[in-house]
Amino acid sequence: MQYLDESVEEAAQHVIDDLFRDGGLGAVVAMDRQGNVALARNCDRMYRGIIRAKDTSTLRFTFACPRSPLT
Q: Per-residue confidence at 42, pLDDT binned at 50, 70, 90?
């Protein structure tokens, strides 16, 4: 984000793209200093949620990634 001037969503997706290119499946949960949240993934199961209070964000998630990528 800092070097490429990307949003948190773009940066998280680049990580997932690199992971998939290298044969991996998974997910990234990222938050920037402004509280913007990105939930990037390349598999079809990631149960996630964001709870936003007045000035904070709290992430709550569970993760299960099957052996097949998103289509």
A: confident
What is the C-alpha to C-alpha distance for residues 18 and 33, in angstroms, rounded to an integer? 23
Amino acid symbol at 27 = A
Contact residues for 70 (Cβ-Cβ < 8 A; gap 6+): 41, 42, 43, 44
The owner of tokens 């949240």 is 37
Return the SS3 of 47: strand
Q: Is 22 helix (H, G, I), strand (E, B) or coil?
A: coil
SS3 content of the chain, % helix, strand, coil (to 5): 20, 35, 45
**DSSP tag of 55:** S
The predicted model gives 22-28 an average pLDDT of 86
